[in-house]
Amino acid sequence: MNQEVDARGLSCPQPVILTLNKIKEVQEGEILVLVDTETARENVSRAAKSKGWTVADIQPADEHTRITLKK
Amino acid sequence: MKNVLATRWGIVVSGGLIGIIAALLQLLGNPANMGICVACFIRDSTGALGMHRAAPVQYLRPEILGFVLGSFVAAYLFKEFKPRAGSAPLVRFMLGFFSMIGALIFLGCPWRALLRLAGGDWNALLGIAGLAVGIWIGTLFLKKGFNLGAARKTYPVVGWIFPLIMAGLLVLMLFNPQVAGQEKSGVLFYSLEGPGSMHAPLIISLAAGLIIGVLAQRSRFCTMGSVRDLILFKQTHLFTGLAAFTLAAFVMNLILKQFNPGFVGQPVAHTMHIWNFAGMVLAGLAFTLAGGCPGRQLFLSGEGDADAAVFVVGMVVGSAFAHNFGLASSAAGVTSGGITALAIGFAVCLLIGFTMREKVRL
Questions:
Q1: B152-153 and B84-85 as β-strands: parallel, antiparallel, unpaired?
Q2: Which residues of A touch B239 (CB under 8 A)?
Q3: What digits encode the pLDDT tens for the residues B30-64?
Q4: Binning pLDDT at 50, 70 and 90, where does residue A12 land?
Q5: DSSP state at residue B326
Q6: How many angstroms separate the CA atoms of B132 and B281, rounded?
Q7: B149 Cβ contact list (under 8 Å, min separation 6)
């Protein structure tokens, strides 16, 4: 099942909090995180890596960036 | 393109450079242990515009203008300018207002708290401890689902307004330059004594502000975020930038003979430990609920975040209140009005913290 975190429009540190909550919830698998600032992209990627997840894919779309996290 | 300043070494280099620039600004004329103080400089700028009439703290600080404009330029150069607005602006205004009340009871924002420490003012330890406690309280709210809500993408002009105001103020300053011995030039007030009379040359202050604006926009340097991430996520990334900032300023102060350790007789400071501590608890809590230290709010304002700009406007109004109603401390210490305002500030921040909570989404 596809797990998604929509952090668009949210400012620091909400994207990281939401991502870490989701990571805690699913433990492993694949999570799609939507963010719309570069800072959020960096922070979410850094936080996920610190929890042993890998950033599998980063897709810039028109209005936001789609980050795929895997473990 | 990879953002080198957002790496571990990037934030260390950025923090270190900002610390060096801060110490140099003191050498070149800024007040002692106040190479950069976002709260004090916004307060001085508010005074320069006559929005408060505390004569010793009136000077339109070019550093503040540079912070916003530097960030604005960097955001455009690196395609990160994102006009956005609509995340609880009035709440952010209130948080900006009371963060200023708290900071002016201590006499400094987190930047200056660290610069005071780097200059040997041990009273800063109380302020920094207070800041950490305030941030810790803020993280408890964050853990309970505190969220100011999402901003929305908006028209580019919305993101341009605050940088344009800064550019306008710069023009105002160029057309109303300081005249030696005069307290007013055209529409602008200039302090003849006190911290407001002490400043580096305009062009140097502006250049320093622009450089820091670019560095901080790229590296995401944030004093509050450094401590928050450490407490909330056990992440040291931003904190290493903060440590580099403090250490660089300390080493520079030693080299420039600006290091004077002690509690008593420190420049623009008082020794009332409880109020130094409590003022910064309030400021730390307000910064955490708003998601950034006052410097960070300026940099965000430059990259299109109109809500961060509203926080800054709250700081402007807060500083006007602080001096019009005698809430700000002085070298003599805290005022009774300041203590009342501090209590109101805590009540407001706690109300905001307890009531603006989403159920953590699952």
A1: antiparallel
A2: none
A3: 999 999 999 999 999 999 999 999 999 999 999 99
A4: confident
A5: T
A6: 7
A7: A10, B86, B87, B88, B356
What tokens appear for B95 in the block? 């948080």
Q: How far is CA B338 from the centre of its chain?
A: 19
The answer to whether A12 and A39 have CB atoms below 8 angstroms apart is: yes
Task: Collect all residues of chain B within an 8 Å Cβ-Cβ radius of residue A9.
Answer: 84, 87, 150-153
Dihedral, CA of residue B235, residue B238, residue B240 and residue B244, to nearest 10: -170
Residue of B7, B143, B233 to mutate for A, most A C-beta atoms under 10 A:
B233
pLDDT in tens, B226-253: 999 999 999 999 999 999 999 999 999 9
Q: What ipTM does the predicted assembly reach?
A: 0.93
Q: How close, in Å, is residue A12 to chain B by CA atoms?
A: 6
Contact A13 B228 (CB under 8 A): yes
Q: How confident is the model at residue A63 (pLDDT cuts 50, 70, 90)?
A: confident
Contact across the interface for A17 and B153, Cβ inside 8 Å: no
Q: What is the reported pTM?
A: 0.96
Nearest-CB residue to B233 (from A8, A16, A39) = A16
State the amino acid at position A15 in one-letter form.
P
Mutate to test the interface with B, among A17, A19, A22 (most CBs of B within 10 A): A17
Could B82 and A37 be called an inter-chain contact, meaning their C-beta atoms sit closer than 8 Å? yes
B305 touches chain A (CB under 8 A): yes
Q: Which helix (H) or strand (E) holds A17?
A: helix A14-26
pLDDT digits (tens, 9 = 90+) for B63-76: 999 999 999 999 99
Helix (H, G, I), strand (E, B) or coil at B189: strand
* Cα–Cα dist B61/B112, whole Å: 15
**In angstroms, how far apart are the furthest CA atoms of chain B?**
64
Task: Say yes or no for a CB contact (<8 Å) between A9 and B152.
Answer: yes
